[in-house]
Amino acid sequence: MKEKLLCGTPLLGTMVTAFDSPELLRLAANAGLDWIFIDTESVYPDPVRLAAMLGYAQLLGLPAIVRIPELNKTETARLLDLGAAGLICPDVRSAAEARELVRLSKYAPEGQRGVALDRPHTRYQTGGTEEKRRYMEAANRRLMLICQIESREGLDQLEEIAAEPGIDGLLIGPNDLTQAMGIYGQTDHPDFLAAVRRVCEAARAHGKAVGMSCGSAAACRPWAELGVAFFQVGTDTSLYGGALRNLRSQWDGAFPR
């Protein structure tokens, strides 16, 4: 995912919120999606099915980025050892929180992630000391760590958060951020547009990528023009619900009552 972001082409992903099935990832990969966003903050998938999804994502070569419920050692270690390609930390409000995300997620010397290598993230392949060392160095390079900006406090500390080494991207949460700004849902409001520009400028200054949640592909283009590089478009429920409504509309056209 990091390599694709360097190419400058906007990346398409969607969010898994309810259908915690490995087969959903096969469908996403078949459709050519660039990444998948698995939410464990607002919902909590069955742990066994989550493990299967992350293992399947590895086999498919589809980066699965997981949003953790909160910033703590248990959640970060569990999800990374299950094979998550990266983590999204919700509502990051300070550089200290961003720094803690890096500390918990990366192996030494960049962080203090626990070394448990006979796990799904290595596909249960272990080797000698030198081989393990090389694996941990490569894992640190590949890992995507993303801070979600969705509060006034996060905006106030934006430049400091973006400057933290080890952080790869900033994800804008339009719903929560506009709510925090007192302009809920008004993504065309001048204050929100200014906030997005600030996020993009801070990210650009520190070599980080910016992501955005959108409801449709068409809605992504204006943000891409501002510098947003990766997108989460819709959710499993919204996309499937929309497809069913479209099917019903087609049916009613073919078989008018």
Question: How would you summarize what this structure contains?
Answer:
With 257 residues, this protein is of the alpha/beta class.
> What overall form do the CA principal axes indicate?
globular
Mean pLDDT score:
94
- How many extended strands? 8
Give a short account of the largest sheet.
8 strands, parallel, barrel
By oligomeric state, this entry counts as: single chain
How widely separated are the two ends? 49 Å
Class derived from helix and strand content = alpha/beta
Please report the number of helical segments: 12
Strand order of the largest sheet: 1-2-3-4-5-6-7-8
Strand content: 15-25%
Order of helices and strands: HEHEHEHEHHEHHEHHEHEH
The low-confidence parts are: none
Determine Rg (CA atoms, Å): 19 Å
Secondary structure: helix percent: 40-55%
